[in-house]
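My main concern about presentation is that the manuscript never shows what a single data entry looks like. For the editor and my fellow referees, an illustration may be useful. For illustration, here is how one protein appears when written out as sequence plus structure tokens:

***
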Amino acid sequence: MPADRTPTELAASIRSDPGIDLTPIYSRLASILAPGSEPHADQSRSVRVPSVELDDVTVTVSVWCSDPSYLGTFDRTADTKMVRVALLAHPDTPEVEDTLPPPVDLPLREQIAWVRAVLGDSADYAYRVVTDASMVRVRPSFFVVLVESDGSPRLAPSDFAWLLASSGGGRRAYPEKVVPDDPELLWYLRRHGDLIRADRVAHPQASPPEVWAQEFVSSLTATIADELGRMGASRWFTFEEIRLHGIDRVIVRYTWHLVDGDKRFGFDIDLAGLRAYRLRVHDDPRASTAGRRVGRTPFSQPTFRDPEIVDGVTWVAFGASG
């Protein structure tokens, strides 16, 4: 095989080689990516094929599909699916007691070629997932591509959990974007990066209530701390309490230091109501954006409608009344 062939040229030679049959994988991909189909663990498919760059080496190419919604922020209307391609190479030596010989490293160029042969144009949107485990010993190579219900591939969100997507073990993971053949996509990546900012996803899914509550408090607290930090020594606010009650209520108490005297405030936050409000009005049920919005409220010198004053504390309700 000429040493100067690109992964795309190698992929073309793979698809045209009569000795390499990827039909089982193509058929399985067609079924699991069909509109309305649900990803299942038993929908994986593997083929064993000869390496196109290494002599006397067999490559096992495996493909399967799963639901990525728990791995990052996705558009809930897009029914996104995650296709994973795993590659593992073994020398063609006799098996000992039904055990394969130790795996060997497959050249990166050939890895990308197999991914392009399997995924076609969608490979432009693929990522190679590298883990720390793969750096110290030979492991399967994992590639991920995200596909929406209409068959369109998409870039990954910035909060994507790469380690969980790799299935390769280890403690850390990061993505390496496959360089696309499409010049327009390449132009976009060079200017905007290879991930979609999670806070710009149009129709995100909401976390379960117990997770939403923790995410809200975390975002709320971080936002308040950031705003106070920006004030430096001129702090006009003192926060006495940020407390989560169960999974459905948060209490915030603070003092606003004014020239004519301190004024005490309390926020009584109904999390279920706030979450429903954010979804109904903003089509955004993310706890992080709700937390940032409420956390910035004290610093915008607000005038609250119909607050309840109890023992000198101005109580403001969030969520319950929309």
Remarks:
- The mean pLDDT is 89.
- The two ends are 66 Å apart (CA to CA).
- Residues 209-231 form the longest helix (23 residues).
- The CA atoms of residues 16 and 249 lie 62 Å apart.
